[in-house]
Amino acid sequence: MRHPAFSVTIKFGVKLTNEELLREFEPIFYPKSIAVVGISQNIFKVGSLWLKALIDAGFRGSIYPIHPRGGEFLGLKVYNSFKEVPEIVDYVIVSIPREAVPELLDDCAHKVKAVHFFTAGFGEAGDATGRKLEEELISKARHGGFRIVGPNCIGVYSPEVRVPYGPSGRIGEVGSVGFISQSGGIGEKLFELGLARGIKYSKGISFGNGIDLDSPDYMEYMATDPRVSVIGAYLEGAKNGHRLFTTMKDAARLKPLVVWKAGRTDVGAAAAASHTGSLASSAAIWSAVIRQSGAIEVQDVEELTDTLLIFQQLGRLEVKGNGIAVVGGLADGGGGISVSASDACAELGLNIPPLSSETRRKLTNILGRVGSILRNPVDLSQSGSNRSMIKEATGLVFADSSIDLVIVQIDAGILLKYLPWELVESIFTVFIEMRAEQQKPIVIVSPPGAFEAQRIEMEQQLARASIPVFPTMKRAAKAIVNLSRYSRFRNRG
Amino acid sequence: MRHPAFSVTIKFGVKLTNEELLREFEPIFYPKSIAVVGISQNIFKVGSLWLKALIDAGFRGSIYPIHPRGGEFLGLKVYNSFKEVPEIVDYVIVSIPREAVPELLDDCAHKVKAVHFFTAGFGEAGDATGRKLEEELISKARHGGFRIVGPNCIGVYSPEVRVPYGPSGRIGEVGSVGFISQSGGIGEKLFELGLARGIKYSKGISFGNGIDLDSPDYMEYMATDPRVSVIGAYLEGAKNGHRLFTTMKDAARLKPLVVWKAGRTDVGAAAAASHTGSLASSAAIWSAVIRQSGAIEVQDVEELTDTLLIFQQLGRLEVKGNGIAVVGGLADGGGGISVSASDACAELGLNIPPLSSETRRKLTNILGRVGSILRNPVDLSQSGSNRSMIKEATGLVFADSSIDLVIVQIDAGILLKYLPWELVESIFTVFIEMRAEQQKPIVIVSPPGAFEAQRIEMEQQLARASIPVFPTMKRAAKAIVNLSRYSRFRNRG
Predict the structure, then answer these.
(1) If contacts are CB pairs under 8 Å, which of residues 454-483 in chain B contact chain A?
(2) Any CB–CB contact under 8 A between A277 and chain B?
(3) In the structure, what pLDDT confidence band is assigned to residue B283 with cuts at 50, 70 and 90?
(4) Is A315 helix (H, G, I), strand (E, B) or coil?
(5) How far apart are CA B11 and CA B220, in angstroms?
(6) Residue B469 near residue B444, CB atoms below 8 Å
(7) Average pLDDT in the A241-268 region?
(8) Its pTM surpasses 0.90
(9) Which of A165, A327, A339 is best to mutate for the B interface (most B CBs within 10 A)?
(10) B216 touches chain A (CB under 8 A)
(11) Distance of alpha carbon A325 from its chain centroid, rounded?
(12) Is the pLDDT of residue A1 over 60?
């Protein structure tokens, strides 16, 4: 894979090599020590919760609680100030009132490598004090030799070294997806949907106002970091549009970059201004810029996670052409599903070619003629939910030369209305076997319904087998379109 | 309410009054007796399952199993033929091979009122035998004095008299929603999503090939039936487009009629032809016809259920204007949600007016300035998940004169990452109280995540309090658009 040095990787006016870039971000994403400022003896204060979260998560480095009163808290020695801490601290988590920030930063000078501010009330607040404080932050960071994450953000998520996302100790599995979010709340949702849907992160960042390190910086880092295979970004605006564009362009040449630009409408842009102080320009310009850069534009948190999921699960499989087969009706009554699935796929421009007459003849031999739709979509209603019949028929669909990817609709709720869980499990595990046996990718649609506990158990088994699962046919189709567009972009080179 | 007699309510060439129409469908939707044909001693045969389902559901009338061998089955006397049955049977459920159907119908003549065929293999099979059999069915029904439901369908769902939908005994709560589905599987999904989301049906029908009673007949019936307040229809095509159009027009004047026409694309239309033998003409024509009729056009099963749900839950509340407020951030980090919520609403043309300066001043008094977005959307992050603060702030939003409907985003997954269930419950029940106290409607967005058991419990509590709940902001916004369009259509008269 080509791996160009970024044209814009500059630290205080000095261009960095890839190695220097990775080293620059090491204290932020792989800290060996973390200090927490803003703790109190009250465990319900957010600083205390943050400290507890690091302990609960099992953070792999040293933890230094900082408070003028000193003493002990949650079993750890509390330091009066950074001067007392016996080493240079990699990462500092700050949640104190904005007025107290300048004094803290004097204490941090030449003693820490990066400071993350959960604290809000800077540029986004829209008052003179906020703007003045923001300038002071930048100046003190430059002079004190440290970088700033935020302010007004949740900061880093790094499951490998067990840095949790936000003041709660839950950590997900380590994977290769990276996220960059201007909003802390959207980052929370990405983290949570990762747990729910099997998206495994290498790292994530919420950067809020981004007054020092900004979206293009994190994008460069994640594009350069070999542990990240796909990047998802939530943006509300950009301080330097040109730099963001060139960074997206460079990043998209290296790995899939999925961008959700919110604040597309006037109302959304107004909300973005009060949220992270971003100026959001017109939707059409943003769309054009994202598409021109080679990044994949998505419209909401659902499409963002759907697209990250399909890249994670299928990114290494080659989708050779654009022929899609849709298989449904594992319980009776797949006809209507076939009709509406066809619409959902065709409306997004996916190609649903008829199966060859040879394949259809073989399918008829297995399923019989009456009540079956065997053209494509393929309605397996006549299989009577028979495991081996389903496997044989789906195998024929995979083998058809005009098919490059197979979508299977498994409606757990309809199956469970008629069949016991054990039988339903024996049916959906067919596709786990086929994922391992087939060269062509498989995508599952699993619509929510009245048997959610079992459906979620099914989804998690499928996810663990590297099968991407979507709640609706339309969302599956959109994710496939995003995947195949990027394949074409990469192949054009 | 105006209640015109339908121009097209004709039985074998004779025009019916509303009362005659209701009486005509009484044996189908409110049968006093049901016969089941196609049972065997094998309980796993579909006919046997159907019989068992009627027993399990507690069907309120007499049940007559029919089989030439007679005897007893599942504790019921089995009748050799219809001649032996001591009364006229209202509704017959048939699942036998298509070849055996003509003889059965001779037996039914003048002895039954309606015959439902689960049996497939007629017009939709595309062979000469299928087409010939279909003609024979019609002719025997005319001469034998009974109506046909189907063939190739699941038939009736009537929770009031405890007729289950399909061969499984599960019955939902009785309500006022009616569904009409050309596909049995889509009907299954509507039934199941009803259980899951709190949509309560008065009745439903899957009519398959509809060779005798067809979509316009069921539509007339449900439009006339005072127990139905909103109708949802899944259609793949129509035999008589003009009659369907005039029926939709008459029905939409009486109550909301929500129509999902599938087979919109070429591939979808091809699938529809093999499914129910329907000729689906171009999407643009269908859209124009549905909209002109005053019906509400939807695109998939999600939008169909979303729209039925909002009419059921809010149909009686008047939405006076088109000003929408969005409230989010009940846990920390509502800023990004506000930005993207604004986009989702604005892109669908909903009006998100700024709150009055008076309302914003009062909100600032409660929530403080820093970190809060109080223009609209309103970000309650600064409430610290405090119940009374949330209630007071939301009350101010309701009271603002430019607001006609309030959307609240409750992200159970993010709340539960930080708070115990009891606290989360104390928060969302605020909105159950407000539903009862406020004149303006409330809509909740509850995104899925990693705490589904608790989230579903929350959704069900909200649904029981007549609050419509949607999984995404976009789907909520679309349902609101559908609701308000129909209000405008009704007000125009």
Answers:
(1) 456, 471-474
(2) no
(3) confident
(4) coil
(5) 12
(6) yes
(7) 91
(8) yes
(9) A339
(10) no
(11) 27
(12) no
Stretch B290-297: mean pLDDT, rounded?
Answer: 95
Place of tokens 């309605």: A379
Closest residue of A to B378, CA-based? A271
* Averaged pLDDT of chain A: 90
State phi, psi for A447 to the nearest 5 degrees: -70, 135
Q: Which of A180, A265, A340, A386 to mutate to test the interface with B (most CBs of B within 10 A)?
A: A340
**Pick among A49, A264, A267, A347 to test the B interface (most B CBs inside 10 A):** A267
The string over A17-32, giving b where at least 16 C-beta atoms fall within 10 Å of a residue's C-beta and e elsewhere, is ebeebbebbebbbbbb
Asked whether the predicted pLDDT for residue A117 surpasses 50, the reply is yes
| A vs B: CB pairs below 8 A | 257
**Chain B contact for A211, CB < 8 A?**
no
pLDDT in tens, B321-374: 789 999 998 876 667 778 888 888 888 989 999 999 999 999 989 887 655 667
A435 and A466 Cβ atoms separated by less than 8 Å: yes
**Across residues B115-119, what is the average pLDDT?**
93
Cross-chain CB nearest to B185 (options A187, A337, A376): A337
Q: Does residue B280 register a pLDDT over 80?
A: no
What ipTM does the predicted assembly reach? 0.91
Residues B14-37: tens digit of each pLDDT: 778 899 999 999 999 999 999 999
CA distances from B207 to A3, A200, A335, B212 (A): 60, 45, 13, 10
* Chain A residues inside the 8 Å CB shell of B275: 335-336, 338-339, 373, 379
Nearest-Cα distance to chain B for A262, in Å, is 6
Strands B155-157 and B201-206 turn out to be antiparallel
Question: What DSSP state is assigned to residue A354?
Answer: P
Q: How confident is the model at residue B42 (pLDDT cuts 50, 70, 90)?
A: confident
Beta strands in B286-323, from DSSP E residues, in sequence order: 296-298
What stretch of H or E contains B443?
Answer: strand B442-445
Helix (H), strand (E), coil (C) string for A375-397:
CCCEECHHHCCCHHHHHHHHHHH
